[in-house]
Design brief:
mainly alpha, 1% strand
Length: 562
């Protein structure tokens, strides 16, 4: 092979890696919502860790430099560093695996990329892009924390060694994550027995993962792995970190094993990734021939169940809405987002063995909110490509809107009834309070779809948004989300103020205190004003669903295609 061809072959993975990095940055930079979410994640995930590290690491560095390897008492510095390094490697491998399953292994335009160069170049390019993207997140905190430690230890070596070790860990963790992720994706998309049930499997894994976090099991597993892996090869890169710590002698075998082992396992993982990619990318996806028949059968059963409910066009719209959602459940991903907040209360529920009253009310409120977000928050945009056909057909706006409402009520009423009864039983609520909660929840899941259909008609979204790097879906607009949520929260808070004794006086005192901070004459807000305002907001909230339905019907009938 000539030097020119060898040089071209070596440039190809770099071109692929640079292209993937550029595309990823362009996608993130072009989506303001994703940028905001990344900023929030960085603030709340990395911010506290950086703050604690900046406060504690200088002290730890000074103490370690003075006391040596036994500075931490029962745990030696060697065990602490190697165990922490092994846990970081596992975390990065897990993240790389998830990235491969969801994004990296799903090659964009495979008919072009996979035939334009050797498969080895594609794999190396994709892995290299992931290493670069991970490094963009890992290296800045590593430099900041190592500088804090170096300040206490009185040496500049941690600032030089820690980023180098971080890159070394990434060069092994990312290829291993790619190898694992591509086989997991192969099982989920190609191996038919698993591919047929991949959605329930993903849901079970996600629930188990977040449940382990909420129940505190993840902490126990982490502590166990820390002690188990500190002396394993996964902790060998930690011996390189010990080179930068004064007064601590690293293991020569560990340092050599970290360098040689990293090169060996990275090469082996990349070679395995190339072979695995060849199996996965050139395989036919699984086909479940039973799905269409099962879908038609379920639609027929649903249609027969609704035979005496409304006219035939109304039933058809309802069945179609449910069937489309069942076919593409990713469209409801936004409805699941608020559930991530439950992670912070599950730990208390498991520890106390009971469901607090406020959590029971919030769960029912979530069901009420989700009832409107299911099928009615974007009635025009959800029609997609069939919108012109529906607009030019004989179906009326009243039939379409009632059909969407029927779909929402059909799913939400049984769900709301079951959830309200369950939380009422397991919480300290009395029998009368449980009955009131059940009644309010059932009434709410009937009213919120009516409110959502009006808000969604006023602020529709017709274009799709990118859910993942390679998946898009039509979702309600952010304005519709905000308006709909405000239309539920405001009457709900007003009802709470009127229901709780002394709440109007408390709100009036808070309002008076806030107004006193503003320039100008002092204004006292009487409790009577708060009570009257709460009644007005509650009345408007109760009337809003009827008004919203009428507006949605007129909006649909008067909508003009551009």
């Amino acid at each position: 092979m000539s030097l020119a061809s060898l040089s071209a072959a070596s440039r190809t993975p770099l071109i692929i890696a640079a292209t993937e990095c550029r595309r990823t940055v362009r996608v993130v930079a072009g989506d303001r919502t994703k940028l905001l979410l990344l900023g929030v994640v960085a603030l709340f995930a990395l911010g506290p860790s950086l703050l604690v590290g900046l406060l504690l690491l200088p002290v730890a560095g000074e103490h370690l430099a003075a006391e040596g390897a036994d500075a931490f008492g029962p745990i030696s510095a060697v065990e602490a560093v190697t165990g922490a390094t092994a846990l970081v490697w596992l975390l990065l491998t897990l993240m790389a695996t998830i990235r491969t399953v969801t994004t990296v292994a799903d090659v964009d335009e495979p008919a072009c990329l996979l035939v334009s160069t050797r498969l080895r170049n594609v794999v190396i390019g994709l892995v290299g892009a992931e290493v670069a993207l991970f490094a963009a997140w890992v290296l800045p905190p590593a430099v900041v924390l190592s500088a804090a430690f170096a300040r206490g230890a009185g040496t500049i070596r941690p600032v030089l060694v820690v980023p180098a070790v971080a890159v070394l860990v990434l060069l092994t963790a990312v290829p291993v994550g790619f190898l694992l992720g591509i086989w997991i994706r192969h099982l989920l998309t190609v191996f038919e027995p698993i591919a047929r049930y991949r959605t329930p499997l993903i849901v079970v894994v996600a629930v188990a993962y977040f449940g382990a976090i909420a129940a505190g099991w993840l902490d126990a597993i982490t502590v166990h792995l820390f002690g188990l892996l500190s002396g394993s090869p996964l902790g060998w890169p930690g011996h390189l970190l010990l080179v930068a710590i004064p007064g601590v002698s690293p293991s020569t075998v560990g340092v050599g094993g970290a360098i040689v082992g990293s090169a060996f396992f990275a090469t082996l993982a990349v070679a395995g990734g190339v072979a695995s990619a060849r199996v996965h990318w050139f395989a036919d996806p699984a086909r479940t021939d039973e799905e269409p028949t099962a879908e038609v059968g379920s639609s027929d059963r649903l249609g027969s169940l609704l035979e005496r409910v409304g006219s035939r066009p109304v039933r058809t719209v309802a069945v179609t809405a449910i069937r489309r959602t069942r076919r593409a459940p990713i469209r409801l991903l936004y409805v699941v987002y608020p559930l991530f907040g439950a992670i912070f209360v599950v730990d208390d529920v498991v520890a106390t063995g009971t469901l607090p009253t406020h959590v029971a009310v919030l769960l029912c409120f979530y069901v009420v909110w989700g009832a409107g977000a299911l099928f009615t928050l974007n009635p025009l945009g959800d029609l997609g490509r069939s919108l012109p056909a529906v607009m030019t057909s004989t179906v009326s706006g009243r039939q379409v809107i009632l059909g969407r409402l029927l779909a929402g009520v059909l799913v939400a009423v049984p769900t709301g009834l079951v959830v309200a009864l369950l939380v009422g039983v397991v919480s300290p609520l009395t029998l009368e309070q449980t009955a009131l909660l059940v009644t309010a929840t059932v009434a709410g899941v009937v009213a919120t779809p009516a409110l959502a259909v009006g808000v969604g008609s006023a602020f529709p979204r017709f274009g799709s948004v990118r859910v993942t790097n390679n998946r898009e879906a039509v979702m309600p607009s952010k304005t519709a989300f905000a308006g709909y949520t405000l239309g539920i929260v405001a009457p709900g808070v007003s009802a709470l103020v009127l229901y709780v004794d002394g709440a109007p006086g408390l709100v009036a005192a808070l309002a008076t205190g806030f107004l006193s901070l503003l320039p100008g004459p002092e204004v006292a807000v009487p409790a009577t004003v708060v009570t009257v305002a709460a009644w007005v907001v509650l009345a408007l909230g109760l009337a809003a669903p009827l008004v919203a339905v009428g507006y949605a019907i007129r909006r649909f009938d008067g909508y003009a295609l551009e």
